[in-house]
Structure formats: structure tokens, C-alpha cells
Specification:
663 residues, alpha/beta, 2-enoyl-CoA Hydratase, Chain A, domain 1, eight-stranded mixed beta sheet, six-stranded parallel beta sheet, globular
Length: 663
């Protein structure tokens, strides 16, 4: 028998060659040399490598977005038009970007810091690189009236240097036109125009809904004019609330008209507002032509025509596209022109948005957060005085008192306290102002609302409608109270009302002491009534008119500062991660494209704001959590497009019931 492993004859291999096995029958079938566990291991390794590659690519994409999305301190052009493309609202303090909302595409409209816009305009006035200023207000949704007036005054400084300021929008509303009126040229799209509404509008009242659902609102309040809780007690507005609302709304409206008429004396503002539909009909139903005829706009033309006009002044970026003008983005200009830090530091502590218990991010005034900022400023030896910048409708009494105590601690360290009221400083916003050595406000600031309330719902009647009842034992009159399922008893109601009355007495006492007036006089102007800044000054609730610059000057004087001084802000800065997410997934090109344009688009946006107001109001029944010094009606005079209130959540019990009823 021949060995199958032997070297075949005539082979060229030598005696040391490796033996070669001859093929046998059946060897042509493929056989696996890898075991099943080894295959699984190879699969897991491949998945691991794939995921690592994906995450690595995502990391570099995020890093690229962060680096490319951040404002560049180097201007993109040597000279051109400073572009203020305000696609959103202006506010004293933009809210912190919610990373989860940004990732899910649910981020709100963009917010612009008022002081950044004002500083950009003021620096542009004296900088030769800026040859004009463009106000793109096509998707502008407004801001507080004081903030808009500050921006208008900054535009006037640009025009005083003989630099053109050009405004464009498809359609102008009350807020956007207040800014645009300060421009040297106002453009409107042919399908747009100007539609001025003025302050006012409807409030929502829930008494009928609550009766239908069997929900009882237990209200504890002090003050004839404390109308914040009326939506839960009535089906309409009380005469006292109407009187108060009309009083301060009329002051704001007169101030708006005065500002616009001064900025644009040639415009027939009053006649246009008095009969806008009649003038539009006379112009062949063309709102833009009616606006042009009344002198409210200077030119009617498309965005391309407007861009070509700007390029005539500031040059074209691309000669083949004459409407593509040299533009300097606002963010880049702000980054390239930081505020000066010469001289002594004066601390500025913003109190912006609803005042809530605990800590809170920017856009909401957390009691612990703001108090810590005040204490940090007081502990800073380089800070000689503190300015509290208030733009808040109030909120939690406990949080307001926490901030006040921190201000008293700062005063104990001999640091003067000055309050600068912006658009709104009412209820809790006034509570935190009481330690001030001096209070500044504008004529169209909304303040006062010295009153408190508490609200607690019970659902015993609602549950009874579906056959659910509650029963139990009690060892004292307050056992198990407040019982929101079985009903709140009289003893608890009496105790709660006494607590609210005690806090109200403390509030009026604080105001009387700080304003050096008898309590009896304060009680006549308190009771929750809201006042415009001009009236508040006459009543002694504020000391003088002025904005933040005047407040800083007063603080420096009280601190006996010689020479220069600068504002040093004590506030949380948004994290780089949240800013990166905002740039990548937040309000940017895609969201801006969906923002409302034109008169009908902006009018439709009001529906969404009403829905948010509904959610905020209903959340009071389940989320207030403490006695409130809050002016809910004052929220209408803040940038309503971006609700900073924690109560904006629509997942509360009553909100769900309302949605179920709707369906």
C-alpha cells in the first residue's frame, strides 16, 4: 500500500519538504474552522467598533458645530452694515437653553439680550467700519415697552452720527413698529404693511369650566384690586380690575404714541390707528399702500429690493448678486466689542422672570440663586455698590423674602443698594425692591401690585361625579387638612386666610418703612393695584425716572466712587454645552424659517400664546406651592413668546381635565 503522505514521484521538492496530504473523496465540501462562540465574539467586536466610530463622528460633528457656531471676535468683513436680525423676542436675560428640548427640536423662539443690542448700536455709532444699520424685523415678536424704548434711543444715537438706519419687515405690529419708527428708512413688503393694535385684550376666566368639572378653588387673598385670582372666582372681569387695567394701559399707550410720534413726526399715526380698515379700503384693500400714504413707511418693496438699497450704501458682498450686501452679524459685533471694565466695579444682579422657590436657571428668578448672587457681590471687595435690575411680575413670597434678606446683609456691609426697574417690577418684584436706597423706573414701567394671595383646589365634587368619595377620622380640626380629595374644612380656610392677611400686613409694613410713609397711606395705594411708572413716582413708590445707566451713576455716587466705574454682572452664564446644542439643534435656520411672517402669521401666533397662558393659569391650582405675591396680568407686558414660568407645563391635573373636556 502506498502512503498517502509520501512525496509524489518527479517532485521538485527535496527530502525536507513538508508532506502534502492528497485530496480524498468528499473534501470538496467547505468546512467551518470557527466555532459558534467565536462568531458571536467577532460580531460583538464589530458592533463595538461600529459604535465607537459613530460616537467619534458625532463628537467631531459637535465640536465642529461648537467652534463654527460661536461668535467670532474677528469681523467677517472690513466694513458693512450692522445686521440686527431679530428673529424672536428681546429680553433682559435670555433663558438657559434646555439641552433635552434642543435635542428633541422643541426649543422656543430665540431671545436677544437687550443690553447686547443697545451696546452694539452705541458702539456702531462711533465705529467707521459700520456704514449703516439694518433692522430685520420680519420675524420679530416683540418685548417689553421699556426695552423697546431703550433700543429706539440707541438707534437715535446711530442716526445722530449721520449713519443710515434701514428697517424691513413684511408686516409691522405694535412692538416692531416702535423700533422701526426710529429708522431713517422704513421698508415694507408689498403684501404687508403696518397694523397697530395697542395694549389690551381678553383675559381667560375658568369659573364655568371649574363648576362643570366640580372643582372648588379655595382662594385666600387681600386687596380689592388683587385680580390675579379672579379667573378662578368669576366668569368676567370685575369693575375694579377693569379700572386698574385701563389706568396703567392708557399710560403705556400714551407713552408709546409719544415715542413713535417723536421719532417719526411726519407719520399720521393717530389718523391711521383711528380708522385703519377705512384707510385700507380707500387704498384698494392694500395695507402696504395705506401705510405708505399715511407716512408710516417710506418704501414698499421686496426683500431683494431692500437688500439692493442697503448694498448701495454699504457695498455688495457679491457683485453678481447686488442685493447681497456686506453684513456684520450682531453676535460677531458683540463678541468683538465687549463692554469696558475701566474703573470701579458696580455689581448688577438681575431679577428676571417669575420669582420661584429654590434654585433656577436664567430667565427665572430662583430665590436661592438670586440671594447667592447678592451675597457674592457683597463679599467682593472690589464691588462698591449693588444695582438690582428687576424685570419680574413677582411670585413666591418666601423666595422674595430670601432675596430681600440677602440685600439687607449687603447693606450691613455698607454697600449701597439701588433698584433699576425695567418693564415690570410688580408684587414680589416690588417686595425685593424695598431695601433699596433709591429706586429708578421709567414712565412705562409697570409696578406696584402690593398684595398677596394663596390658591388651593379641592376635587371632592369632581370625584363624586364619578362615584368616588372620601371618608376617615380626625383627632383635631386640622387632621388631614388640606384635604383636596375630601374637601377643605372651615378651620383650615380660616387659618390660611389669617396667614395671607399676616403676610399682606408685613408687605405693606415693608413698603411703608422703605418709602418713609405711614402704613395708612400705603394701604390706600396697595390692595394689589397695579400702577404705571409715572403714577408710581407721584405716589412715592419710586424715586426718579431713569434706566440702568442712571441707576449705576446713582450707585457710584452713593458709594462715593471717584472716577470711572463699570457694571459687573452677577448672573449664571449659559454652559458651553447648552450653547452648542442651541446652535446645532435649537432655534436656527430651520426654526427661523417656521417663525411667523406677515400680519396673518403673527396674528396666528397669538393663538399659541393664548394656549400657553391657559396652561400657566391652570397650573396655579396645582403648582403654586406657597403664598404668592404675583401680578399675573403683568405678564402680558413681558416677552410672552417665551414663558419662563415653571407653571408653563401642561401636564397638571386640571390642564389634563381641560384637554379631556375639549376632546
Amino acid at each position: 500500500m502506498t502512503d498517502s503522505t509520501a512525496t509524489p514521484p518527479n517532485s521538485n521538492q527535496g527530502p525536507w519538504a513538508i508532506p502534502v496530504r492528497r485530496p480524498l473523496p468528499g473534501d470538496d465540501k467547505p468546512k467551518s474552522t470557527t466555532s459558534f462562540p467565536r462568531k458571536v465574539w467577532h460580531l460583538l467586536v464589530a458592533i463595538k467598533d461600529g459604535l465607537a466610530l459613530v460616537f467619534l463622528l458625532m463628537f467631531f460633528a459637535l465640536l465642529f458645530g461648537l467652534l463654527s457656531g460661536r461668535p467670532n471676535a474677528a469681523l467677517p468683513v472690513s466694513e458693512g452694515a450692522l445686521l440686527l436680525e431679530l428673529d424672536g423676542v428681546v429680553t433682559e436675560q435670555p433663558a438657559e437653553i434646555d439641552p433635552f428640548a434642543a435635542l428633541s427640536g422643541g426649543q422656543d423662539l430665540k431671545e436677544y439680550r437687550v443690553r447686547d443690542v443697545v451696546h452694539a448700536l452705541e458702539t456702531a455709532a462711533d465705529d467707521k467700519r459700520v456704514t449703516s444699520v439694518v433692522l430685520d424685523l420680519d420675524r420679530f415678536l416683540g418685548g417689553g415697552q421699556v426695552s423697546l424704548a431703550e433700543i429706539g434711543a440707541a438707534i437715535d444715537k446711530v442716526r445722530a452720527k449721520k449713519k443710515p438706519v434701514l428697517a424691513f419687515a413684511t408686516a409691522y405690529t405694535t412692538d416692531s413698529y416702535q423700533i422701526a419708527s426710529h429708522a431713517s428708512e422704513i421698508w415694507s413688503d408689498p403684501i404687508g404693511g403696518v397694523a397697530i393694535a395697542g395694549p389690551g385684550g381678553s383675559h381667560l376666566y375658568y369659573k364655568g369650566l371649574m363648576d362643570r368639572l366640580g372643582i372648588t378653588a379655595h382662594i385666600y387673598r387681600v386687596g380689592t384690586f388683587k385680580s390675579a385670582v379672579e379667573p378662578f372666582l368669576r366668569s368676567d372681569q370685575s369693575p375694579e380690575a377693569k379700572e386698574a387695567d385701563l389706568a396703567y394701559a392708557s399710560v403705556l399707550w400714551d407713552k408709546w404714541r409719544s415715542d413713535v410720534q417723536k421719532a417719526r413726526p411726519q407719520a399720521k399715526i393717530d389718523a391711521f390707528i383711528a380708522d385703519t380698515p377705512g384707510l385700507v379700503k380707500a387704498a384698494g384693500n392694500d395695507l402696504s399702500k395705506a401705510s405708505l400714504d399715511a407716512g408710516l413707511v417710506d418704501k414698499v418693496g421686496s426683500r431683494m429690493a431692500f437688500g439692493t438699497r442697503v448694498a448701495e450704501i454699504s457695498g455688495a458682498y457679491d457683485d453678481s448678486q447686488p442685493w447681497d450686501y456686506n453684513a456684520i452679524p450682531l453676535d460677531n459685533w458683540v463678541a468683538a466689542n465687549p463692554p469696558g471694565k475701566e474703573g470701579t466695579a458696580i455689581a448688577v444682579v438681575p431679577v428676571i422672570g417669575e420669582i420661584v422657590d429654590g434654585e433656577a436657571s436664567n430667565g427665572t428668578a430662583g430665590g436661592e440663586t438670586i440671594a447667592q448672587h447678592v451675597l457674592d457681590a457683597a463679599a467682593d471687595d472690589g464691588v462698591k455698590a449693588i444695582v438690582l435690575r428687576v424685570d419680574s411680575p413677582g411670585g413666591s413670597v418666601l423666595a422674595s423674602e430670601e432675596i430681600r434678606q440677602a440685600l439687607l446683609a449687603a447693606k450691613a456691609k455698607k454697600k449701597p443698594i439701588v433698584v433699576s426697574m425695567a418693564n415690570v417690577a410688580a408684587s414680589g418684584g416690588y417686595w425685593v425692591s424695598t431695601p433699596a436706597d433709591r429706586i429708578f423706573a421709567e414712565p412705562d414701567t409697570i409696578t406696584g401690585s402690593i398684595g398677596v394671595f394663596g390658591i388651593l383646589p379641592s376635587f371632592d365634587q369632581a370625584l363624586a361625579k364619578i362615584g368616588v368619595t372620601a371618608d376617615g377620622i380626625a383627632t383635631t380640626p386640622l387632621s388631614g387638612q388640606p384635604d383636596i380629595l375630601g374637601g377643605v374644612n372651615d378651620e383650615f380656610n380660616q387659618l390660611a386666610q389669617a396667614s395671607v392677611e399676616d403676610i399682606y400686613a408685613r408687605f405693606t409694613g415693608l413698603v411703608a418703612k422703605s418709602r418713609k410713609q405711614p402704613v395708612e397711606k400705603i394701604e390706600t395705594i396697595a390692595e394689589g393695584r397695579v400702577w404705571a411708572g409715572g403714577t408710581a413716582r407721584q405716589l412715592g413708590l419710586v424715586d426718579q425716572f431713569g434706566g440702568l445707566p442712571e441707576a449705576l451713576a446713582a450707585a457710584a455716587k452713593l458709594a462715593k466712587v471717584d472716577g470711572d466705574y463699570h457694571a459687573k454682572y452677577f448672573e449664571d452664564e449659559p454652559s458651553e454645552f447648552s450653547k452648542m446644542l442651541a446652535g446645532l439643534f435649537g432655534v436656527d435656520q430651520e426654526e427661523a424659517a417656521m417663525a411667523p411672517r406677515g400680519w396673518f402669521g403673527i396674528a396666528a401666533m397669538k393663538r399659541q400664546l393664548t394656549e400657553r397662558r391657559l396652561a400657566q393659569d391652570l397650573s396655579l391650582l396645582t403648582e403654586a406651592g406657597s403664598v404668592q405675591a404675583a401680578c399675573l396680568d403683568c405678564r402680558a407686558y413681558l416677552p410672552a413668546a417665551v414663558p419662563h414660568s415653571r407653571g408653563a407645563d401642561t401636564t397638571g391635573l386640571l390642564a389634563k381635565l381641560a384637554l379631556l373636556l375639549k376632546s
